[in-house]
Amino acid sequence: MAKAGMEEQSSYDHVLTAEYASLIAMEFGRNPIVNDEAAFDIYPPTTHPDPSTLPLRPPIVTIMGHVDHGKTTLLDKLRSTSVAKGEAGGITQHIGAFSVPVPASSGEAPKTITFLDTPGHAAFSAMRARGASVTDIVVLVVAADDGIMPQTREVLDLIQQEKITAVVAINKIDKPGVDIEKAQNALLAEGVQLEAFGGDIPCVPVSGLTGKGLDDLVETISLIAETQELRAERDGDIQGYVLESKIRKGLGPVATVLLLRGCLKPGAHVICGTHHGKVRTMLDSSDKPVKAAYPGMAVTVTGWKSLPGAGDEVLQGAEANVKKAIANRERKADLEGTMEDLEAINEQRRLERDRREAEEASGASVNNHQVEQEQGPKELRLVVKGDVSGSVEAVVDALQCIGNKEACVKIISSGVGDVTESDVFRAQVAQGTIVAFTVSTPRSVEVLAKQHSVPLISSKVIYSLIDDIRSHVIQLLAPIT
Ligand code: GDP
């Protein structure tokens, strides 16, 4: 009997999820912090205890500079050099990065440099916003005939602020009458410590158009990389970043992943944000299958269940762990959304309370609702939920046109997804109605809405929804006497 009683006490109904616990805490005006450490997720592999014993990896280089100073031309020339040198044959796909071979002395292992060719891309802003810089070396391109320009200064600031190793490429030296020294002096005047003047920033004169000086540039980058001791595990679980992602015909969602550590092979289970997949194939920039990808390489990965976002971190784990981590991350994302909703509700309540207190202080005894009703048009306040953002917008646009000077629709909030408990709270506070357009309402939420006398209108057809809302607005009007 006692045992049955215990079971009764600790039945499922009494176990609170992190979400519910947080909701309750917020109801009491507290600011809950969910301790995620206890929850499952996949984290980057731990740092090696002695990185100096790890194998060297290719440097990852980004070319930056003022518009029209020749970044694209330089990248194209470097890419075609790599194609010509047999690194990649035939037509190349743009995958956000390519590698250029570095001439090696006899007996030396062949080396490469990875050039990223989407520096202005969203992936870079996303990575930088998260403090994840994948660039080891920046090549600052300065056109010899144009000198220092606003974006040149921006790059110089970035290099200084983030302490990035830089190489200056003075470009367009094929142009008649260009003065390389003048360009160097201009850089010096900006505080750039060029090697030629006793500093530590190498400066290489090049022509992206003719290819002159590009071998020097590649060699200079390679020498800098040697001093940087860029080392990473070539085995074990991976850590990488998505450079680009898209749906490709016949391949489904694909993402170019730049590897920073580990070894990626087909069959691996990968996770990126709330997206995951089992690597089906890996392709290089010539669309040739790659059997194994290593640090510094960028490969197009197929096998994703959905499209990962550019700039997001890619990790690897056992299938079951990836699934658990996905569920965990989705729950966390939901909770963050709910928290935002709740903060908005709390804010609304605070405002409501402040107004009531102000009214009480001034001796007013009429209730808020009446004041509003007497002062302006009567409002049918709506919380709108829909299946996709396009349909939510369409419903909101259509509904907020309903009404006249005496009675009208007011949209309290709108959003994508099923009706949630916070929608009910929100509608209750605003004395509003919930509109669920082609989305479902969980049974528990329906019950909550009933308990709080929040009307709920579900519809799948926009015209009948408009009719329905119109008749509700008409009901708000005073009867004609
Ligand atoms: P980006 O905006 O920095 O990517 O610059 P582009 O690569 O698009 O080059 C801008 C213009 O400069 C184009 O007309 C190029 O043909 C030209 N250009 C680029 N590099 C060179 C070069 O080394 N020599 C000469 N003469 N023209 C160049």
Automatic annotation (TrEMBL):
Keywords: GTP-binding, Initiation factor, Mitochondrion, Nucleotide-binding, Protein biosynthesis, Transit peptide. Residues 56-229 form the Tr-type G domain. One of its GO terms (molecular function) is GTP binding. One of its GO terms (cellular component) is mitochondrion. It is found in: Mitochondrion. Transmembrane segments: none annotated. Residues 347-377 are annotated as: Disordered. Residues 347-359 have a biased composition (Basic and acidic residues). Belongs to the TRAFAC class translation factor GTPase superfamily. Classic translation factor GTPase family. IF-2 subfamily. One of the essential components for the initiation of protein synthesis. Protects formylmethionyl-tRNA from spontaneous hydrolysis and promotes its binding to the 30S ribosomal subunits. Also involved in the hydrolysis of GTP during the formation of the 70S ribosomal complex. This is Translation initiation factor IF-2, mitochondrial. The lineage of its organism: Eukaryota, Fungi, Dikarya, Basidiomycota, Agaricomycotina. The chain holds residues 1 to 481 of 584 of the full protein.
